[in-house]
Design a protein that fits this description.
Layout: H1 4-14, E1 24-26, E2 48-51, H2 94-108, E3 133-138, E4 142-147, E5 153-157, E6 165-167, E7 173-179, E8 182-188, E9 208-216, E10 221-229, E11 238-246
Antiparallel strand pairs: 1-6, 2-3, 2-11, 3-4, 4-5, 7-8, 8-9, 9-10, 10-11
Length: 280
C-alpha cells in the first residue's frame, strides 16, 4: 500500500505537537479484569489526542518482535511505498510465513494488495495501531479509543471479564482495567478474515492481544506496549510498541473514506478477491 499521502499529512501536523460476523466462540479464561478497580483520584488522565508520525510497529526493547519491512530507503529507514514483509522472521509458522511472502511478491511486482486502509474498511487489532492519530475518551465505566481512519473507534468496558460467548469481529471483544499508572486492555474474539499488520500477516481464532497504555515525560508522551499471542500462527508470543506525542491542538483531521472504493490512492491495485457465487 502507498501510504505517502497519509504520511505527509501526519508529518505536517506533527509540527503542531506540544464484514459479516463469524460463528460464536467460547471465551477463554484470560483477560478477566474481575473486581480490579481503582479510585478515580488515582486514575491517570489519558484523555486527549495523541500522534505518532511514523509507520509500522516499533520493536520491543528485547525478545521476539513484529514482522518488519524488508524494503528500506537509502537512509536505512523503512520504505512504506513498497511494503514487503520479512517472511523469515522466526515468530512466523510456515503457513503464516508463506502468506507474508506472497503478499511481498505482489508489492515487488508493482501492484498493491487490498487492505483495510485502501479499501476503507474497519481496522482490526493490532493493525489499528498503525493509525497516526488516537483520541482517548475516559468514562467511569469504559474507555473509548477513536482513530483517524474513517473515525474508526473501539469501546473498552472497564472492570469486567470477557463474556462467556463471543461473536468474532474485526475489533474483537476488549475489556480493560487500570494497574497504577497503566491502562491495560485485553482483546480476544478477532475474526480470522483480518490480519495483524500491513504485511497481511495472518492469524487464527486464538489471537490474543494485550495493550498497556502508560504516559511518560510528564504526560507529553504515551507509550503503548503490545503483547501478541497466537499459537496457531506464531511460534512464540511477541511484543511491539507504539509511541505517541500529545497534540496540543487536540483535534483530529477528518479522513473520510468510502467503503469499497477500489482505487482510493489511484494506484495499481491487485484484483480484489470476489466470491464465485452470492452468499444469499
Amino acid at each position: 500500500m502507498n501510504l505517502r499521502p497519509q504520511f505527509l499529512l501526519a508529518m505536517t501536523l506533527a509540527g503542531a505537537v506540544a464484514t459479516p460476523a463469524s460463528p460464536q466462540t467460547t471465551a477463554p479464561s484470560v483477560g478477566s479484569s474481575g473486581s480490579r478497580t481503582q479510585s478515580g483520584a488515582s486514575i491517570p488522565d489519558f484523555s486527549g489526542v495523541w500522534l505518532h508520525p511514523g509507520l509500522g510497529f516499533g520493536p520491543p526493547l528485547s525478545g521476539p518482535g513484529p514482522v518488519r519491512n524488508k524494503s528500506r530507503l537509502p537512509s536505512g529507514a523503512s520504505n512504506f511505498n513498497l511494503v514487503v514483509g520479512d517472511y523469515t522472521n522466526p515468530i512466523l509458522k510456515p503457513e503464516a510465513a508463506e502468506v507474508v511472502k506472497k503478499r511481498g511478491e505482489v508489492s515487488l511486482s508493482g501492484r498493491i494488495f487490498p487492505d483495510p486502509d485502501n479499501m476503507c474498511l474497519q481496522n482490526p487489532v493490532p493493525y489499528i495501531f498503525w493509525n497516526f492519530y488516537l483520541r482517548i475518551l475516559q468514562l467511569p465505566n469504559k474507555v473509548i479509543l477513536v482513530y483517524q481512519h474513517d473515525d474508526d473507534f473501539r469501546q473498552v468496558p472497564l472492570n469486567r471479564p470477557h463474556p462467556a460467548t463471543i461473536v468474532s469481529s474485526v475489533h474483537g471483544d476488549s475489556v480493560g482495567h487500570y494497574e497504577g499508572d497503566t491502562l491495560v486492555v485485553d482483546t480476544i474474539g478477532l475474526t480470522t478474515r483480518t490480519f495483524v499488520d500491513e504485511f497481511r500477516t495472518p492469524h487464527t481464532e486464538q489471537l490474543h492481544v494485550t495493550e498497556r497504555f502508560r504516559m511518560t515525560e510528564g504526560g507529553k508522551t504515551l507509550e503503548v506496549n503490545l503483547h501478541v499471542e497466537d499459537p496457531g500462527a506464531f511460534t512464540t508470543p511477541w511484543d511491539a510498541k507504539q509511541r505517541y506525542r500529545r497534540v496540543s491542538a487536540g483535534q483530529i483531521e477528518e479522513a473520510a473514506c468510502a467503503e469499497n472504493n477500489a482505487n482510493y490512492f489511484h494506484e495499481n491495485y491487485e484484483a480484489i478477491p470476489e466470491a464465485e457465487r452470492p452468499d444469499f
